[in-house]
Amino acid sequence: MNEAATPNDACAGLTLLARNPTDSVTEGFLPAAARLGLAVTLLTDQPDVHRAAYERYACERRGGGPSAGALPGRLEIVPCDVQDVRAVIARSAAQAARVGAPAAVFTNSDHLQVQAALTADYFGLPGKDWRAAFRTKNKAELRRSLAAAGLDTVRSAELAPGDDPAGHGVPYPGVLKPREGVAGEDVFLVADDAELAARRAEIRARRPGAALVLEEYLDGPLHTLETLGDGHVLHPLASFRTDISPPHFIEERLTLLPEPPGPCTGQVLEHLRALGVGFGACHTEYVDQGGRARIIEVNYRAIGDRCDLALAEALDLPLFELILRTHLGEPLPDALAVRRGTRVRMEYVCADRDGTLKAAPEAHVQEADGVRLDYRPLRETGERHPLYRTNRDFLGVLRATGRDEGRIDAAVREFLAAHCWEIVP
């Protein structure tokens, strides 16, 4: 490994891999890179979409909108097939010859963790173990790795293209999903062999050649554990309680739990260490079955859908800077000074039909009775969309912050009752 890069060094550069723009990058990591004085080279297969997103963000800031934080003054958007690690390394090497080698390689994308890890290793930079990134992305390998460590008994079966699903050994009801899927896309609860066959054919029609996994359905309270590590120390930061909509597993709300970080924290950390997870941010989803942690999935990146922004604010922690500093090779302190006692509720307004969004509230912030409400639209009025049955159906997100959970819940109810989201055919 190379020595840690020094932030604010005039030559320090961050290579950031991304697919579509996200609030995590636009409002979190890019402003954090600016505060650290890093020049950013953003490699993406959607350069025009990123340019448009950052122009909108800059306009919001100039117009006094709700967004906070400046984009780096040295931000270069470079076209690249970021899903192909050979293309990423080749493009990064070309950039290094032109502007100097990067000080860090980073991504917050589920799809690009292995590529970022291998690219960092190619340049001799700190980064995640690519094997751990692969284990967490590939849900079948995640199950095999945990079972081999004797830590997990969630029954599952990998269904590769052409496999006969007979005798899969998973009890019904089961959950069928893409092996490398994200965001609840094409995730189905199946009750028997007939429904398994039908849903399998349905997914394969949309994803030709995709491998699937069938897993035991885990019933019980759904939680997350948010962690931050530097490869040596691993900090449990916080936990959210998650409410989902049946039967499509779409997140409706997340509630930040009071300290300590959450139930089963020690067990979840043991699972993460067995997987080799411990560098940078990680977002783990699990079910608490009577004090027993049952892992659903491990997302080796920061929590999304604006929860990371809410978490940084609630904990009064420079979360995005700390994540980038680990990738620059800086060690984390043995203890993090975080603020406790702040309650947060994230409420997602979700479309229930396809069509055009005719009316919806605009972004705004209000504060009353000890509760701060921050609403952000996630879909523009006039846009037409099908019903995806995933988080792509989100119309907007409401963040409610305060010290009293009862007041927070009341403020959320009042906000939702006072506003209308109208979808027309």
Distance between the termini: 57 Å
Give the overall shape.
Answer: globular
Largest sheet entry: 10 strands, antiparallel
Oligomer: single chain
* E-strand count: 21
Uncertain regions: pLDDT < 50 for 5+ in a row?
Answer: 1-6
Number of helices: 11
Give the rounded overall mean pLDDT. 91
Task: Tell me the fraction of residues in β-strands, as a range.
Answer: 25-35%
Radius of gyration: 21 Å
Q: Kindly name the structural category.
A: alpha+beta
- Give the % helix: 25-40%
Q: Could you list some keywords that capture this structure?
A:
10-stranded antiparallel β-sheet; 425 residues; alpha+beta; disordered N terminus; 4-stranded parallel β-sheet
